[in-house]
Design goal:
The complex is a heterodimer of chains A (113) and B (118). With 113 residues, chain A is an all-beta fold. Chain A contains no helices and 12 strands. In chain A, strands 2, 5, 6, 10, 11 and 12 form a 6-stranded mixed β-sheet that branches. A 4-stranded antiparallel β-sheet of chain A has the order 3-9-8-7, with no helix packed on it. Chain A has a two-stranded antiparallel sheet with strand order 1-4. With 118 residues, chain B is mainly beta. Helices cover 0% and strands 53% of the residues of chain B. In chain B, strands 2, 4, 5, 6, 9, 10 and 11 form a 7-stranded mixed β-sheet that branches. A 4-stranded antiparallel β-sheet of chain B has the order 1-3-8-7, with no helix packed on it. In chain B, a hairpin with a 5-residue loop joins strand 4 and strand 5. The N and C termini of chain B lie far apart (37 Å). The chains are: A mainly beta (113), B mainly beta (118). Chains A and B meet through strand 5, strand 6 and strand 10 of A and strand 5, strand 9 and strand 10 of B.
C-alpha cells in the first residue's frame, strides 16, 4: 500500500522568508511523487513531480522539492515566500504500477505580509 | 493545454433529489477520470475510477448505487448523487488522465463542485 504523510497541518511564515512544507512517503518500489496546490473552492493545480533523476526538482511559481530516498521524504520549498502563496498544499504519491494517487492530509500555508 | 472543466461549480439541492455533476476534458481525450470527495480542510478521498466505455471502479465504502458514474465518451464523465442527503454535502473534484499518458505524468483536475444538500 502507498501513503504519504504531511506532519504539519499549518505552516506560517513571513513574506520574504523561506517556506518549507514537509512530506514523507511510503511505497513499495520507486515512487512517483507530486505536489499540488489548492486555492479556496478550486481544484488542484500541479506544482512539480519527481520521477527519477536529480533529487532536486524545480516546479511552478518558484517552488522546488528535494527527494531524499534514505529519509523517504519529498519536502516542498520556496526560498522567498509571497503572500499569494497562501493556500492548501498536498503531497501525493503514485505507485508506478497504478494510476491512483494517494494524497496527504494537506498543509495550510499562510504567508503574512 | 490539459484543461478540465467541471460543472456546476456549486449547487444547492433539497434532500431526496438527485444532482448531476459533469467533468469534461476540453482540449484532450481522457481515457480515465477520477472522482474525489473532499471535506472541509481535509484531504481528497478517491471515490471511483471511471474508464471510458466501461463500468466505474468504486473504492471500498463508496456506494455505487448512490454515486452513479458514467463515462460515455473520451471527454465527458458524470457523477450523479442520487437521493441526496445533507451528509452528502461536500466538495467533489474530478481529475483526468490523458489518452496514452504515462503513469509518471500529473493528473489534471477540475475546479470542483460544492454540493450543499438542505
Amino acid at each position: 500500500a502507498q501513503s504519504v504523510a504531511q506532519p504539519e497541518d499549518q505552516v506560517n511564515v513571513a513574506e520574504g522568508n523561506p517556506l518549507t512544507v514537509k512530506c514523507t512517503y511510503s511505497v513499495s518500489g520507486n515512487p512517483y511523487l507530486f505536489w499540488y496546490v489548492q486555492y479556496p473552492n478550486r481544484g488542484l493545480q500541479f506544482l512539480l513531480k519527481y520521477i527519477t533523476g536529480d533529487n532536486l526538482v524545480k516546479g511552478s511559481y518558484g517552488f522546488e522539492a528535494e527527494f531524499n530516498k534514505s529519509q523517504t521524504s519529498f519536502h516542498l520549498k520556496k526560498p522567498s515566500a509571497l503572500v499569494s502563496d497562501s493556500a492548501l498544499y498536498f503531497c501525493a504519491v503514485r505507485d508506478p504500477n497504478h494510476y491512483k494517487l494517494s494524497f496527504g492530509a494537506g498543509t495550510t500555508v499562510t504567508v503574512r505580509a | 493545454g490539459a484543461v478540465v472543466s467541471q460543472h456546476p461549480s456549486w449547487v444547492i439541492c433539497k434532500s431526496g433529489t438527485s444532482v448531476k455533476i459533469e467533468c469534461r476534458s476540453l482540449d484532450f481525450q481522457a481515457t480515465t477520470m477520477f472522482w474525489y470527495r473532499q471535506f472541509p480542510k481535509q484531504s481528497l478521498m478517491l471515490m471511483a475510477t471511471s474508464n471510458e466505455g466501461s463500468k466505474a471502479t468504486y473504492e471500498q465504502g463508496v456506494e455505487k448505487d448512490k454515486f452513479l458514474i458514467n463515462h460515455a465518451s473520451l471527454t465527458l464523465s458524470t457523477l450523479t448523487v442520487t437521493s441526496a442527503h445533507p451528509e452528502d454535502s461536500s466538495f467533489y473534484i474530478c481529475s483526468a488522465r490523458k489518452l496514452r499518458q504515462g503513469s509518471n505524468s500529473p493528473l489534471h483536475f477540475g475546479n470542483g463542485t460544492r454540493l450543499t444538500v438542505t
